[in-house]
Amino acid sequence: MSCKKNNDKVVFNDTYTGKFIEGPVNQLVSVNTEVKFSGDRYAATNGTGIFTVENSSKVKFSMDYVSSMDYVGNKVLHGDYSYMIKGDSLILDKIFPSTEHHNTLTSTISYKNQYRLKRMK
Prior knowledge:
Order of helices and strands: EEEEEEEEEE
Number of strands: 10
């Protein structure tokens, strides 16, 4: 089983492929991606690192190697994500820190950073 509960703690294992969807919601870009989970390590299309399942809906990724020369912070699997498991599907949504922007354009733009993945068979 790819994502399973072990003493009420979710364990991620296996290889997942799918789409990485990113950008302002009115200009989303989707690219193919792959993420391999093994123990507390992960290898994504653009780097590797460690991860910790913090609770039943949140996982924290800490990338320690970025393989792309065109590194952009929002395009790597790093930081806090909410997760949802549906059968062999895993959906990861980036949790952005709350910021207060009063009367600015940035407060009206929604940004998406999501991995929609399926376990490889």
